[in-house]
Amino acid sequence: MSEEDGDGVDHGPTSSHRGDHTGGETDDRNRARDLEGVVAAVRDRVDPDEDERTRLRDVADRLMERAETAAAELCADTDVLQVGSTARNTWISGDRDIDIFVRFPPSLDRGTLADYGLEVGHATIPDGHEEYAEHPYVKGTVEGFEIDIVPCFRLESATEIRSAVDRTPFHTRYLQQRLDDELAADVRLTKQFLKGIGAYGSDLRTRGFSGYLTELLVVEYGGFRPLLAAVADWQPPVELDPEEHGRETFDDPLVVIDPTDPDRNVAAVCASDNVARFQHYARSFLERPRIDVFEPDDPEPLTEAGLRDHLERRGTTPVAVRFEAPDLVEDQLYPQLQKSLDGITTGLDDRGFDVFRATAVADETAAVLVELAVSERPAVERHEGPPVHVRNHAEGFYDAYADDPDAYGPFIEGGRYVTERDRAFTTARGFLESDRLFDVGLGAHVETALEDGYEVLSGDEIVALLDEFGPELADYFTPRP
Ligand SMILES: Nc1ccn([C@@H]2O[C@H](COP(=O)(O)OP(=O)(O)OP(=O)(O)O)[C@@H](O)[C@H]2O)c(=O)n1
Ligand SMILES: [Mg+2]
Which residues of this UniProt protein bind CTP (predicted)? Predict the structure, then answer.
């Protein structure tokens, strides 16, 4: 997806009218026709065809039967159901995870539930492996489909849940009652739109819109187009409560009270930037419908020469702290990196090294990259004391610095004592290489990683990041909404 007229080519199917008319009504009609054309083209790609549906149905049915048999042998009163987007007809063609939930009576304790769940999982997918979320479950691939076999408790209401997965069957039931074929198609379209703009997914790297949230929004507004029209005019905080049963207040830019649980905001992880991003592209797409909004961008990786050009043109100074990436799953790693990024930029700012923009990247190694507007400071810094008339404080300040041979002052300026004393760090690099870096509020795992050693890159040395982070650096230097 590229913003506005990037390549000058309109990928919408009908662009011949451009410039033919000036009337507002005609423009509206043409836009509506463009939008329909784009929607048809996207649906052609995201709607699973009959063959895909049948194959999925076959595999799902077969596995559910196996899971039912295995569960019945372990425990009475169990049942098996399919959940997630493949159960609701809202999956995007080619994205094929089949989530199968095995429900056990709530009289079981958690440990037994976990053991039974794994046993059923292994019986259902013999070459599956165990993964760990809130509790362990079995995952595997069957005929090209990614299968999860997840145990949960069978409860009367989603408010009694003991873990997050217990809610999922309630979501499925709620949506199955409300999604018809038309709305399900609009959900697929909206998911692809959000993927195209980089705002789909409730993982903690993306902090965007989850599948369930997308479905609720489409149902609530009655389709893709009305949803976009509403989003274009949102005034956050936006609060939706489809079942009108919410009883808590949330401090989030988007609040969608879970129809199955009055105390949960389904959009709790959705970052304000992603809400704003959705608003931006909703407006821009309604104004000029085009297919490339639905396509995630793959920027050309940056070359060394390209990177040097950017830096010279911008006149900023980059610094980076590079270390071995902590061995964590992404949902733990990215919050750690974000926290460390915030700490490091604040630490630099506090010492007079003005931060222009910054990012954190991770692969084998991780790096916090900070682009500085100011990377060097003079040997001395100003230190302002109290107004002279505040006698107690003023005398204390004066006495503390009067005999300091390295300080200039104290002198009086604007009625206050001021002194100029030696600065602890005259370069950003000096600060980053010092132990003071550990005072800035790093993520705990990042702190441990840094204790094992890290490297500071500054100025031109930054090109060393290109091999590993070429695409990320390209993204950084071609920012878009
Ligand atoms: N943050 C999340 C993630 C998942 N779920 C529940 O778990 C189900 C399966 O999750 P997932 O596969 O991530 O989402 P899908 O809805 O299946 O969407 P997609 O098409 O992206 O797979 C969801 O439908 C939802 O009921 C949830 O409530 N909250
Ligand atoms: Mg899914």
Answer: 85, 88, 171, 191, 200
